[in-house]
Amino acid sequence: MKKPKVIVSVINDLNTDQRVHKVCSFIQDQGYEVLLVGRRLKSSQKMEARSYHTKRFRMIFEKGALFYAWFNFRLFWFLLFHRSDILVANDLDTLLPNYLVSRLKRKKLVYDSHEYFTEVPELISRPKVKAVWERIERFIFPKLRFVSTVNQSIAQKYEAKYGVPLKVIRNVSPLWHPAAIQSKKELGIPEGKHILIMQGAGLNVDRGVEEAIRMMPFLENTVLIIVGSGDIIPAMKKLVEKEKWEDLVLFFGKRPYRELLQFTQQADLGLSFDQPTNPNYLFSLPNKIFDYIHTSTPIVCSDLIEVSKLVKSYEVGEIVTDFEPQHLAKQIQAILSNTQLIENWKNNCKIAASNENWEVEVQQLNEFYPKVHE
Asked: Is 322 found in the same domain as 220?
C-alpha cells in the first residue's frame, strides 16, 4: 500500500532553506512520502543529499517577472500530473499553482508564509508588481484553512486582514550537538582577535550589513566575518576593497548549515542589524537569532518587535538603536571589554536553547500533518 504523498514547493534552490528542510523531515517522520520541489539556477550548488525526494526545475529565465511566471507555469503542470494527497505552498510566490491544483484535484492545501510577503522592500518600491501579488493574495487567502507563519506579529497582521486564523511555527534552530568543534585555524578565522559574525541567506539591502562593515575601522583588535549571501554582498565586497578593509571584514559566502554553525560558535558576538524600513523587516524574527542562541553566541541586535522581545526575555544580548559607525563601534567595544557580561549572556543562551528549539516547536505541526497509522 502506497504511503500518502506530500508535495512541498518553494521558489528557491532548496539547499539553504532550513525551515523547509525541517518541515519536510517532520512530515516524513509522520509516515508520509515527501517530494520537495524548487528551482535550479546556473549559480546553484549541487543538491545536498536528503532523506526525502527533491526536484529542481531548470529555469529559462533567472530573474524578473518572467522568472516567476515560468516557475509558476512549470509548478502548475508538475503538480497537476503528479500524485499527491497534500500540497504545501511556501510563500505567496508558490501559492497560486498550489491553490488551483488543490481545487482541481480536491486535495488538502497547507500554506506556510515565511514573511509578510507583500510588504517586502522589493515590492514596496514597485507598486505595480506589488498590486499583482496583493491581488493573488486577496483572491486565495480568505479561502485557506491550514495556514502557518513564522511569528505572532505576522500572524496577527494576516488575521486582521483576512479573518483567517494562523498557526505560529517559528523558524527555531534544532538542538546543536556537533560531533566535533572546528578551530578558528581550520575555518580560516584569525586567531587572537575578537570575532563578530553576521550570517544569513538573505543579506540584502537594509539588513544591516553596511552598518556592520562601516563600524569596523573604529574597533580595536576585532574582525567581522560575513557568512552567507544576498543582493548587497557584491557591493559590500567592492566597498571593503575600495576602503582597504580586507583585514577587518572577511566574506565566507554560503555554507552548509552544519558548517555555518561552526563559524557561528567561534564568534564572540552575533550581529542582527535589520532595519525597520518596511513592515516585513519590522515584524521579522530572523532564524540567525536562534542559531546564535544555540551556539551560545551573545547577540547585538536592532530594535525589532519580535527580536527585542526574545533577547530581553532571556537576557542573551543587547539592543542597539544608533547605527552611526563610531557610536555603534563604541557600544560593541564596551561589550567586548566586559568579559563577565558576555559570560552571563552565554550561560543564558544555554537556558534559552533548552526552551527555544525545533524539537519543541515542531509539535505544533501535528494538526496539519497527523501521523500516518500503517
From this structure: yes
